[in-house]
Amino acid sequence: MTLYSTKKPLTTQPGQVQTGNNHNALSPAPSGGLVILCSGEDEGRAVARCLDRSRRRCFGLFLGWEGSVGGRLCAVAVTGDGENPLYVALRQMAHIFQPQIAVALEPVSAVAEGLHGGDFVLIREAARCLVPAGLARNICDDRYLFPSEAIRREILEAPAVASDAEGLAIVAEALAHNMPAESVQPEVPVVRAGCSGFWPQHQSVRNWVRSRFVVEVVAAGVNGFLSAAHDLRLPALATGVVADGCSDDDRLEFRRHRRRYLRAAAVLSLRGAMAWLSRTPQTVSRGPRPSA
């Protein structure tokens, strides 16, 4: 699939990015596929290696790849970290591709026991949270941990954003007995994520974040991704791969076998999305067409 442009396509050498001179010249491509948003280049490259006939593309504000999986069109965009980049990326990619489903894949930090480096997780709900740099033993009231009352209200009063429960159940069932060879985890956990621009660096902070916000992992941008999906009324699957955990061993394990775990996460993300599409095509609803 190509991004349909009024200009003649550019001829590129291997490794180059094919793009046009004017983003406004791009018009929506045929609908019916899926888009995958990755916060980093390594995650995006791992997904692109799983696609048929993948090639580099420029999607206006974002670079990525496009190809096909299971006979369906698939576009992969590298967005960067944070709520805003993922929110903007999904709205733009939905305008260009009009997908049936959107998937997000980003590294997460585990704050709950039982999650280990390299584990792939499904995110059922995302809420904003605060991750302080450290904690003093004599501070019991979290009001003293927030930089200001405005930021405290912005975090605590922001509603949590949930994934589609029916679709998540389909994905979890499909992956229960379909783990790739690269994966070492026995099953795929379903977790609640706290969204923050920082990962906890100390065990005391992890414990506080877990108990205060009732989360199992900390992610950077999944809240923005799910918010955009809700605005667009677009089925969305939020996933993560544990890159940091409750011990130094978890961090080292992921670093040592980074490519292997990202490959497993890419395969599981694609299998989950395809299972959702194949099992419940009638539930995929079309929302209002978003603006660019």
Describe the protein in words.
The chain is of the alpha/beta class and 292 residues long. It has a domain at 30-124 and 161-193 and 217-282: 3-Layer(aba) Sandwich (Rossmann fold), CATH 3.40.50.1580. The protein has eight helices and twelve strands. It has helices at residues 41-48, 83-97, 149-156, 165-176, 203-213, 222-232, 248-256, 258-279; strands at residues 4-5, 26-27, 34-38, 52-59, 62-69, 72-78, 101-110, 120-128, 161-162, 190-195, 217-219, 236-244. The strands form two sheets. The chain has a five-stranded mixed β-barrel with strand order 7-11-10-8-12, surrounded by six helices. Helix 2 runs parallel beside helix 6. The chain is globular, with a radius of gyration of 19 Å. The relative contact order is 0.20.
What is the CATH topology of the domain at 30-124 and 161-193 and 217-282? Rossmann fold
- State the name of the first-level CATH class of the domain at 30-124 and 161-193 and 217-282: Alpha Beta
Number of helices, where a helix is a run of at least 4 consecutive DSSP H or I residues: 8
**CATH architecture group name of the domain at 30-124 and 161-193 and 217-282:** 3-Layer(aba) Sandwich
